[in-house]
Every structure is written in C-alpha cells, then in structure tokens.
Design brief:
By secondary structure, the protein is of the alpha/beta class. The chain is 37% helix and 28% strand. It has a seven-stranded mixed beta sheet. Helix 4 crosses helix 6. The longest helix has 17 residues. The site of S-adenosylmethionine has 21 residues, from helix 1.
Length: 205
C-alpha cells in the first residue's frame, strides 16, 4: 500500500464520509438492515453504529483497504453484534449464491473498477426477496453539471482513490434484471458535481 493511501487517503475518506450528508443517509437506511448483512466496501465501518442490533444476525464487511479495515475493526468492537471484516473486492465476492438477507453499499459504487460486474455479484449473493440498501453519489441532473463532472473526473480520480463521478447505481442495479427499486430518493447538495446522491432500497426478485 502506498504512503498516500495508507496515511492520507484513509483518513480523508473517514473524515469526508463522517459528514452530515452521508450520516443522514445512513440514519435513514441502515436501521433497515436485517439478518445476514454484507456491507460492500465497508471502509472505516461508518454504517455499523446505525444498525439496529436487534435485527442483525451477522454483519460481514468487505473492503480492499487494510488501513480502512483497521478503522472498521475499532467501530466493530462497539456494536454488540457479530461482525466479520474481510479484505477483498466487490468484483469477486467470496460468498455462495443467495447467502445474504441484506446488502449495503454506501459511497462505494463510484470507486469500484467494474460497476456492471459488481452489480451482477450483488445480484448473485442476495437471497430472493432480500434487499439492497444504497446511497451513492453519481451522475448529475443537469447537462452543465455533467460537463463539469466529465472535465474534473480524470484529476479527481487520481487524488480520490479511484472515485468516479458519473455512475448511476439505480440503472446498474435494474440492468441486472434481478433488482426492483422499491424506493429511491435523489438529493442534490452543493457542489452538484460531487453531491448528487441517489439513495434507496432495491429488492431481489
Ligand atoms: C468513499 S469510501 C466509502 C466507505 C463506506 N462504504 C462508507 O460509506 O463510509 C469508498 C470505499 O470503497 C472501497 N473500494 C474501492 N474499490 C473497491 C472494490 N473494487 N470493491 C470493494 N470496495 C472498494 C474503498 O476502499 C473505500 O473503503
């Protein structure tokens, strides 16, 4: 791991993801997680304190960053339910088909290498009738903001650990043919190129 990702990026990600906007999405969505839960791109474990411990049987968090997983381990020790943290990537989920009741993906879809493969992997590991809770920034609503996103993305991607700006999680999930969007909300904060966030619940058919 480079000095940048170990010492700078992991702290920056933890700080930015602890902000008011992400925290609001977490408090709306994460209490809905139940049963066997997979948190894809668990990062520093910021979703964990929002979970309803009475509903969670087991929480598995997967992330490629050892530095962020170390921070998640500290949060996991305080939640009062069973947490397993694994190093890995969402493109190759090391789990059997239909092995989770709830999937959680927050502010991670922007950073994965292959969004279509990740969406297929999510569709594979969730049980029929299971749900996916998502909150992800992505493609802006207006052409002017989209143009700005396109021009900023190459530099942004380099400094922000591979984070892209124009993903559309709702479209990627529905393209799998397995997820139906039960509810979704779009929130545009300032700056729109970075803070157009789609959140919601998808159900696996
Ligand atoms: C902005 S952070 C969000 C972390 C956490 N989900 C949250 O809500 O605070 C993006 C996360 O995606 C992870 N990530 C990057 N590429 C990934 C991949 N291919 N598969 C899974 N996670 C990945 C990063 O290590 C990082 O933890």
């Amino acid at each position: 791991m480079s000095f940048w990702s170990e010492h700078v990026l992991s702290r920056a990600i933890d700080a930015v993801c602890s902000g008011r906007g992400p925290s609001k999405h977490r408090s709306e969505l994460i209490p809905l997680a139940e049963g066997r839960v997979l948190d894809v791109g668990v990062g520093s474990g910021l979703n964990l304190p929002h979970a309803d411990r009475a509903r969670v049987e087991r929480w598995v968090g997967l992330d490629p960053s050892p530095a962020l997983l170390a921070k998640a381990r500290v949060r996991a020790a305080e939640v009062g339910f069973d947490v397993e943290l694994l190093e890995g990537v969402a493109e190759r989920l090391p789990f059997p088909d239909e092995s989770f009741d709830t999937l959680v993906i927050t502010y991670t879809f922007c950073s994965v290498d292959d969004p279509a493969v990740v969406a297929q992997e999510l569709a594979r590991v969730v049980r029929r009738g299971g749900k996916l809770l998502f909150a992800e920034h992505g493609v802006a609503q207006t052409e002017s903001s989209r143009t700005l996103q396109r021009s900023l993305e190459p530099t942004w991607k380099k400094v922000a650990g591979g984070c892209t700006l124009q993903r559309d999680i709702v479209r990627s999930l529905t393209d799998t043919g397995r997820f139906v969007i039960e509810r979704t909300k779009l929130r545009e904060d300032f700056p729109k190129w970075m803070s157009t966030v789609r959140s919601g619940v998808a159900v696996a058919e």
